[in-house]
Amino acid sequence: MTKFSDLNLNPKVLKAIEEAGYETPTPIQAGAIPPALEGKDVLGIAQTGTGKTASFTLPMITMLARGRARARMPRSLVLCPTRELAAQVAENFDTYTKHLKLTKALLIGGVSFGEQDKLIDKGVDVLIATPGRLIDHFERGKLILSDVKIMVVDEADRMLDMGFIPDIERIFQMTPFTRQTLFFSATMAPEIERITNTFLSNPTRVEVARQATTGENIEQGVLMLTASRKDREATEKRKVLRALIDAEGDKCTNAIIFCNRKMDVDTVAKSLKKHGYDAAPIHGDLDQSQRTKTLDGFRNGELRFLVASDVAARGLDVPSVSHVYNFDVPSHAEDYVHRIGRTGRAGRDGKAIMICVPRDEKNLADVERLVQREIPRIENPLGDTPAAKPAKEAAQDAPKADKPVAKDAAQDEAPKSEKPKRTRTRSRKKPETAKAETDTVAADAPQPEPKPEQPTPEATPEVKAEKQPEPKAAAADDKPQDDKQQQNRRGGRGNNRNENRNQNNRNDNKIVGLGEHTPEFIGLSFAERRE
In the chain, what are the domains? Predict the structure, then answer.
């Protein structure tokens, strides 16, 4: 069996490895370290959790032990898809360079440019960065990549998923053609293979496992869930998730729960905390300091459940993760391999459980096609069928839901019998309809008392003295003139209307168009009304 001492590593590196507790290299390490030390390009393909990080950090440290870095000109470059993975690689360098005087800089988002510029200005041997932040420093003129001798691309297939391939190609063009390239990935998509053919020179291919395979020490299972109603699907999934966790009992020391969407990550974490589970979320929208604090708490054992998006699926090394729960079937089949690779690391046993709803069955078929095996189906730990219990609850809730409806209907009926419904909607009616309604209203109006018969000129002098219309008519003729002047100030339409009204009053007080039974006040002129 090969040992680290057989790989021609620097003695100080071997001492650091021994102090870290490692004795035997993994297959990917045993296959990639010797050609890397010879200065050859390496294309490493291995499932996650097999020690790919040490496969390039150990030979890099050995080769960089001689020499010194210059300001703004790093001697080596490591590209990582996520901040967490870049920070993990930096921790590996700290572990294995504890007996060597090598400097490093970590360029990731969420950290001020000023602190990173100070490290670059001093000169670093190893530069660990995410593609976006590296290009930002380069465009600001703070970084020169012409002295890079070793370049590493870690988790290349994740770079492809995150859309970093154009940035990777640009960074390759910034570095010298004579560089040594170490390229590592768990899967080899056609786009990844095109890049390796373009930028790697006769690489040594190290493939220690079939592409996109899962560890044999990971027990897998999928629960097929059919919700009672579509709007209750998310609630029932969370309930089943809690039941799956409880079913494992003490075996589940800690776990990572993966969701496809960031919104679901927050919702599931909040739901677990509400029901007494020690859980916290981690995804790309959180502040970097909060992400780091949450991840450190999970690694130290202070946090039991880490609810994560795929930002935490690639490359994170937490050796003691006992379980992985896929709350959603991943949209990309390759992500399933990386998700469940967070458990069963370093030869330990692990368990991965996934919840699949009917709309995710196509994605499940893609996953099984990729791993070339059927994932065993498991039973619902709630006991009865997933849809039966919610259906009973819905039947019990149905009468309660009907009562308010009946009550509202009764309330609607009562006002209709007592008071007509009022509306503000104005509708245009045809002239015939409007005229018919006017006649109806006039007919229904209270009838005025009949006027006493007018006395004849031969009547008594008292009656004749009481009725003297002439002075009143004259006053009426004089007063509208003032009204006419006021109406002229307002507009001509009101003036014409008053003249027509006065003309009608002169024609023996005969009202046209309003019927015979008209209230007396309607027949008065404007001036008479004011008096």
Answer: 4-207 (3.40.50.300), 224-390 (3.40.50.300), 431-444+455-530 (no CATH)
